[in-house]
User: What shape does this take?
Amino acid sequence: MKKKNERRYLDAFLELRPDLQLADIQHCERPDFICSARGVTTGIEMTRFFFPSRGRISPQAVNEYRDQLTHTLREEHSKRGFPPAHVSVQLFSHEKLLDRRTRQRLATCLLDFVSQRLPPVGPHVEFDYDGLEPKLVELGVDTVSVLRTAGLTKPFWSLPYASFIPESGSSLIQAIVTEKSSYAEEYRNKVPMLWLLIVSGSGGLHSMVDFDGDVLTASYASSFDRIFLLRTFGSSVHELKRA
Assistant: This one.
C-alpha cells in the first residue's frame, strides 16, 4: 500500500476514533506507524482486506489494471483535444488487462474508435459485437457506449466490472490476523504496545467486509493488543474482540 494511502486511511480512522488520543505519529516500516497512545509508545500495523482469490486473476489485480487503463484513456482523450464525453466500455475478457502492451494497444484502439464516432449532444450511442471493429473484439471488448451532454466539461471513461462476492465470515478476518501476528515479535522489539488496523473497502467490492455474519461478534486469536476494523464505505470503525 502506498504511503499516502496509508496515511489517508489512518486519518479517517482517527477522525472516527478521536478518543484514542494518538500523538507524535511517525510513518515508518514494520510496523507502519509508531505513535503515542495516551503516553504509551504504540505501533500500528495496517493491512487491507481482500477476499481470497480462487482464480488465476485476482479481483484486486483486475481493479488495479482497470484503474490504470481508465486513467490513461481520460488523459489521452484530453490531450488529443476530443470533445468531452462519457465512455463506458464493457469487457468480456478481463485477462487481457494483465499484459502491459495489450493494455496500451487497447487504449489506442478505443481512443481511435471513439474519436471517429463521437455523437452530438443528446442520447447515447452504443456499439456491440456487430458495430465494433474486429481488433477491439480480439482485445476483449464486448460493448462501447458513448454519451455527450451539455454540462460535461471533461472526459470520463469507465470500465464496469461485476463478479461474485463470497460471504464474509470471521475465518477470513482470523486468517489476516494470524498472518500479521507472525510479525508481532519483531515489532515488539520497537514498541511495547501493538495495534492492527484492517481496512475494508479500499479496492472495490472484493475488498468490502459484510457485517451480516459473525465478523463483529467473534473473538480472534491475536498477538496484537488491539484489533480495529475500518470500513471506508459507510465510514465506521469497530474494535474486534480478542480470544
Summary: Residues 59-79 form the longest helix (21 residues). The CA atoms of residues 51 and 206 lie 6 Å apart. The mean pLDDT is 90. The first strand starts at residue 22 and ends at 27.
